[in-house]
Amino acid sequence: MNSWKLKEIVVMSTLSVVFAVIYLAFLPIGKILVGFFGPIGYDLIFGIWFIVSIIAAYIIRKPGAAFLSETIAATVEVLLGNAVGPMLIVAGMIQGAGAESAFAITRYKKYTLATLMFAGVMAAVFSFAWGYFRSGYAALDSSYVIAMLVLRMVSGALISGVLGKYLSDALARTGVLSSFALGKEMRRRRAA
Amino acid sequence: MYLNDLNPSVKALTIAGLVFILAFLFDPITPFLYLIFVIGVTFLFGRFNKKHYLLYFSPFFIFAFGMLWTTLAFADAPSNPEQIIAVLWWEFPREDLFIAVSLSLRVLAFAVLSLLFIFTTDMVHFVLSLIQQLKLPPKLAYGVLAGYRFLPMLKTEFQQIRAAHRIRGVSQAKTIQGKVGQWKRLAIPLLAGAIRKAERTAVAMESKGFTGNRNRTYFHQFTVTKKDWLFPIFMFTALGLVILVSVKLGYFNIYDGEL
Prior knowledge:
The structure holds two protein chains of two kinds. By secondary structure, chain A is mostly helical.
C-alpha cells in the first residue's frame, strides 16, 4: 500500500462507488434476462460486473488496483442494500482476484487491449468457479453449464475489456487523468 | 441494544463464517430454521427502523422464487428418478425439489444475515473498526471513506449534468443509437467530475497532515470485549443445533464434491 499515492486510492474508491451504483442498476436487467433465458441470462451481461477492476487497473496501473476496486464496489453494493446479500463481497473479491491475476501474469507492464480483454476473461473464469459452488450449478445440466461459462467469458472480454478501455480512454482525453499512469502514457504518446 | 453496540469487525466476521458454512448445505430444513432464528435475533436485539427492514427484505423473495423455478427447470438428471413429489398439478423428482427449495431458502438466509449487519452497523464505525481490529491500512480505509462520501453528491451532479444538457437543447433520444450517445454524454462528465473531486479531496487530506501512518489517534476507539465474543458463540451454537435437528429428521445433505 505504500507505493500508492493517497490520490490514487481516493480516485479508485470513487470509481468503485460510481460503478457500485451502476452494478446495482444492472441487477434488475440481469433478472429480466434470467426470466427469458434461465440462469444463462446473467452471463450475457456478466462482463459489466467486472468493469471497474479493468478501468481502475488500466488507469492506475499498480498491483492490487483490480482486486481492491472490485472489492470496494461489491462492499458498497452490499451497504446500499441489494438482493444478493453479503456473499456479494466475496464474489467481488474473487472477480477482482481473477482480473488481478491477468495483470499479474503480464507483470503489471502491459496494458494493451488484449491484456484488458484477458483480464475480463480471467474475472469471468474465477467468478464462474465461485458461482459453480455457491449457486449450485452442479445441479444443472453440464452442456448448459459449459454454455454459461463460454458466454460469460465472451461477455467479460467484450463488456469489461473493450468497453472498459473505451471509457477509460475517453476519460483520459478530457485531461482529468493527467497525473495518473494512463494520462501520462497518453501524453507521452502524443508527444512522440 | 446489543447488536448495535457489538464490535463491527466481530459482527462482520461472524456473519461471513455463518454464510460460508450455510453455502455448503443442501437440505431445506437447515436454512429454513436458521432463517427464522436470525430474524428473531435481529428483531429482539437490534435497534432499527422495522418498516425499512421489511422494505429491504421483500425483494429477496422475488430473487428466491427465481432461484426456485430456475433450479427446477434446469435441474440435472436426478439419481433417484423414481422418488416423486407432487406439488399441486406438477410432479417433481424428490431430489430436485429439495435442492431447489434449499437453494432458494439459502438466498433468504443470506439476506437476513446481511440485513442484520447493515441495519445495526454504522458504515464509518465499521471502517474504523477494520483499521483498529483487522489492521486495514489507514491510507486505504480513509481513502475509501472519502470516496464513499461522494455517493450523495454524485446524484446531485448527475441531475445537474442532465439539466445542463436540457437547457442547451439536447432532446431526449428516441433511437437506440441516440440513447447510447446520450448515455456517453452523461457518463464521461460524471466520471470526470468525480475524479476531479477525488483528487482535490486527496490533496486536501494530505495538506492537513494525513500521512496514512498507522501511528495516529482515533476519535472513535473500538475494542473487542468479552461481551463481543458472546455473539459468535451464540450464532454458531444455534447453527450447530439447527444442523442437528436436520440430521435427526433425516433431511441433512452436505455438498459432497459432486461436479
